[in-house]
Write a structure and sequence with these properties.
Layout lengths: L5 E7 L5 H11 L1 E8 L2 E9 H7 L10 E5 L2 E12 L6 E8 L6 E10 L5 H4 L3 E5 L3 E6 L8 E4 L8 E3 L10 E2 H4 L7 E7 L31 H13 L1
C-alpha cells in the first residue's frame, strides 16, 4: 500500500455565486471548489477541470491526503464531496477538508479482495463470491491513512461469511462501525453455492382413445348434421 503524492494546483476565487460558477466552467474550463475545516475560514478556489478529471480516475484520490497549492501556498486536505454531471463526464464542484497531523480523520477506504480466482469455495466447491461491502469507514490520524484494505479469499469455503472483525486493519486504524458496538459487525463478503436453475416443463395430459377430451373435441357438437336434418323436417312439416 505504497502512498503516491497527490498534488493539485488551484487559485483563490472571489467571484462567487451560480452565475460565476457557470462562467468558470463554460469559458475557462475550470471548476469551483471550497476548502474548509481545521478552525480556519473556508477558502473558495478554482481548479482546472481536466486536472481534477484525471485525478479522480485514480482510486487512491478518495482515500489519500492531497496537497493543494493555492496561489503557491500548500493546503493538506482530503476530498469530502464531489458533484458530477448526471449524464456527462464533467465535474461540477468539489469540497475539501483540511487535515491536521494530530487530529483523527473519518474517511471511507476501498476494500480489495485478494486471490478471488484461487478461492477454495470458487475453484473447488462450485461457489461464487458475494460482495456486501466495497469500502469501509475508518478513523485514523493522517499519517496512518491507508490507500485501501486487503482481504484474502484464498481459504474461504462455500457457506463462509467474513465480517468487519475479519479484516486486518493497519496499526492506528479503527472501524467506525465496530466502535459503535459489536452489533455493527456487518458482513463484508461471503461465498455461496451456485445453484443450477431447473426449468420444469408443463405436464401434458394424453387423451385415452375413445374418451372425450376436456373441451369435448371428440363428441359431436349440439346442432350437428343429424340435428339439422331433423330440424329441417320439422320446418318442412310446419
Amino acid at each position: 500500500m505504497s502512498k503516491k503524492e497527490l498534488i493539485l494546483e488551484a487559485k483563490s476565487r472571489t467571484d462567487v455565486g451560480k452565475g460565476a460558477s457557470r462562467r468558470l466552467r463554460r469559458l475557462q474550463n475550470e471548476i469551483p471548489a471550497i476548502i474548509y475545516g481545521a478552525g480556519k475560514e473556508p477558502a473558495s478556489i478554482t481548479m482546472r477541470h481536466d486536472d481534477m478529471l484525471h485525478a479522480v480516475e485514480n482510486e487512491a484520490f478518495f482515500s489519500s491526503i492531497i496537497d493543494i497549492n493555492v496561489d503557491g501556498q500548500k493546503e493538506s486536505v482530503v476530498i469530502k464531496d464531489l458533484q458530477r454531471h448526471p449524464a456527462k463526464p464533467v465535474i461540477l464542484h468539489a469540497d475539501f477538508l483540511r487535515v491536521l497531523a494530530d487530529v483523527a480523520l473519518t474517511v471511507n477506504v476501498p476494500l480489495h479482495l485478494l486471490n478471488e480466482d484461487k478461492c477454495i469455495g470458487v475453484k473447488s466447491e462450485n461457489g461464487q463470491i458475494i460482495i456486501a461491502m466495497h469500502e469501509l469507514q475508518i478513523t485514523c490520524l493522517p499519517k496512518d491513512l491507508p490507500e485501501y484494505i486487503e482481504l484474502d479469499m484464498l481459504e474461504i469455503h462455500v457457506g463462509d461469511t467474513l465480517h468487519i472483525t475479519d479484516l486486518k486493519l493497519p496499526e492506528g486504524v479503527t472501524s467506525v462501525d465496530l466502535s459503535q458496538g459489536d452489533e455493527n459487525d456487518h458482513p463484508v463478503v461471503s461465498v455461496s453455492e451456485i445453484r443450477e436453475q431447473v426449468i420444469e416443463e408443463p405436464e401434458v395430459e394424453e387423451a385415452v382413445e375413445g374418451e372425450e377430451t376436456a373441451d369435448g373435441d371428440d363428441a359431436p357438437s349440439e346442432g350437428g348434421d343429424g340435428d339439422d336434418s331433423a330440424g329441417s323436417d320439422e320446418e318442412k312439416s310446419d
